[in-house]
Design a protein that fits this description.
There is one protein chain. The protein contains 15 helices and 19 strands. With 525 residues, it is of the alpha+beta class. Strand 5 and strand 6 form a beta hairpin. The protein is elongated, with a radius of gyration of 36 Å. The N and C termini lie far apart (72 Å).
Length: 525
Amino acid sequence: MKSIYQLTALIGNKSDGINDEKFMTAAWILYAWMRREVIDCIPLPELPATVSKSAKTGRSVASIYQPEEHFFTLRSSVFENGIRDTVEAEIMPYRQSLLLAVRETAFLREPGAKAKPASGPLAFVRQLIDEVGLNDGRQLSTGLQRITTQQVGELADFLCAPDRWLPVVVVSQAKNPALWQNGYLVDVRELASDLAGSAHVMVIDWDVTYEFSRIVGDEWSCFGGAVRIYWPELFDFETDDPYVHPLYTAQTIRRNFYPSEFEKELKKIIRARNAGQVIAWNRFGIRFYVEAEQMRMLSVSGEESTEELLKQCREQLCRVHESQEEYKALAETYYADMVACQEDSQALQKQMTAMTEMLNRQRREIARLNGRAEQPPVDLGYEQMAKWVEQYYPDRLYLHPRAVRALKSAVYQNPSMVYRCLILLAEDYYDYRMGRINRDTFLQCYAKVDPGLSECGFGGASDILEQGDEYYITYGGKRRLLERHLKKGVNHNALYCLRIYFFWDEKSSHVVIGSLPGHLRSSLT
């Protein structure tokens, strides 16, 4: 089961209190929607009643109407294309006012059914806004709300209001009125209309943004053609993190979005956040139909026959089982979403780490080309060498698993020399193979590392045939000869003899190292 849309809002103004006329009007709007959109033959009770109706087309409705208690609740269910769409709405007294609660959920009952995306409010929510009025600490509107200089203080207070349940979208005007629509980078009227019942859309002109920034501070403000979402969590301008509330600057909107695409992205973000938020319905006393019907049955149990109560209990039990199945599916969906988010987080963490390493490599490369390179550390041991290559030269050196194993038993008495040779291969030999320097320049480079160091390959084909299998590795699914090597010393004593066997891979532009730092045996040795 997936949440599609949720809303809690007061009916009318706070000063209206529990108004009979507004209650009746709101209840009839919901009844009319139920008849129009679900089942048109359901009766409209004029007295306190509980009505229900189902059809063979996969549609069912049920409602409780108690005008003396100013209580109304409905539940509609429509099964189409493998998805059961359930709408629940309730009107009830709350803190000397009338409260509206709306919840829409979708349950995939058939494999392969396409999930219904988070959407905007149902039609009756928009009708209630226009004809009765809904309040979220501020009157909801199907049109944009323009903030004047005198109203900026009220806007700042509203952003911090604890009884605000919907996000506020502030659209600022750019200094240049020739941009897009009179300096606004979005169609504010269309945006306000589409987000009615999902967010408050407010517009502030260029001159008003100065006063707004003065009151809330630049980090919390929105100006210069930017668009910002202020989520409904209670926050404090002095202590909270302003970056939790997304800011889209004019440059970001113009650079990253095609015309009208930004509005679609904005609506998608807000609707997804609305559907995903957790609302403590019980905190408001909201019961919705199933629980409300159980309470009603208990209150009239002394007035009805046992058979009638048993019949109603069986019906409620069926609904409870259905709800249990839906909630179980919802829990499984949330768990799958959590696992997917964890995997995405891990992937992003790896990507961020890789980008950080790439940035560091680019900085070192720029410094090296400018003649002020900071060399990687060379005073480490063999046990750190594999990680050292991964950290500093993953885009240039590749240590074959056989080379990594050889490091575990390395005894060459000067590990620092091995590190300097790896730097030579990763920088100077790499530049030589990439055509940045010629062979003579490279020879001068390895002579600077150590006068006794040399780089060479095997002679002719007969020399290659004389080499044993130790001079070959499997790389990229092929058998490859370690055709080049760096060497220092002629004594085959492992303490004093250095050999680094490698070849250049044209496809990946990597120096592939197959063995180090000891001498490999051959048919000659």
